[in-house]
Amino acid sequence: MRAKCDFWTKLLTKAKNERTGEPTVALRVALSRDGVRYDLTVRRLVYAAFVRAELGDGVVLNRDGNGWDNRVENLQLATNREKGRRVVARQRHTSSLATADRSQWPQTYGGYSRRKPVARCDRATGAVLETYPSIAEAVRRTGWDEKSIILAAKGRWQHYHGFAWRYVEAA
Fold first, then answer.
1. Is residue 160 within 8 Å of residue 147, measured between CB atoms?
2. Which InterPro entries does its entry note (predicted)?
3. Which of the four, 35, 95, 109, 157, has the lowest number of CB atoms within 10 Å?
């Protein structure tokens, strides 16, 4: 029995939730019929056998989050959307973008290739007072409204906040 216990301990230490560090358990079984292998979770088999055989695209979840407890009364059918909301509500997920180091990403990724430089100009003379690499940067530095700057830069408005705005060619 000791060898079996060591096996599960090693398995659980490998399968941990990245955010909480808690072990994640989903008991699985492999069945075959006519030489075709089917990998299923035990909770899905139990739910199909004792509650409803036709599950469709539904996901079977353990109500208490304990993957070892696959009793019928501890199982519930949910959609993928409900499962995702539950993961977020329990704070068991971290967005990979939230922790990614973006400093080495090329600037053509993520919409940077679509940004246009914009200039804030004197209304009377048309002289360029300041140039920003993008509308978003102009909004960050000035604190003014993005949509209004865009409308002025496109020429739909003659000015915004007392300045003329125009798109400039990238240097």
1. no
2. His-Me_finger_sf, WH-like_DNA-bd_sf
3. 35
Name every residue whose Cβ is closer than 8 Å to that of residue 116 and which is 6 or more positions away in sequence: 134, 135, 167, 170
Residue 13 has pLDDT above 60, yes or no: no
Judge whether residue 8 has pLDDT over 60. no
CB 63 within 8 A of CB 42: no
Tokens of 152: 């002025």
Question: Is the Cβ–Cβ distance between 139 and 145 less than 8 Å?
Answer: yes
Residue 160: name the closest of 143, 147, 146, 148 by CA.
148
Q: Which two tokens stand for residue 69?
A: 């407890």
Cα of first residue to Cα of last residue in the chain, in angstroms, is 71
Kind of pairing, strands 36-41 and 59-62? unpaired
Measured distance CA(24)–CA(17) in Å, rounded: 6
Cα 68 to chain center, whole Å? 28
Question: Does the pLDDT of residue 105 top 50, yes or no?
Answer: yes
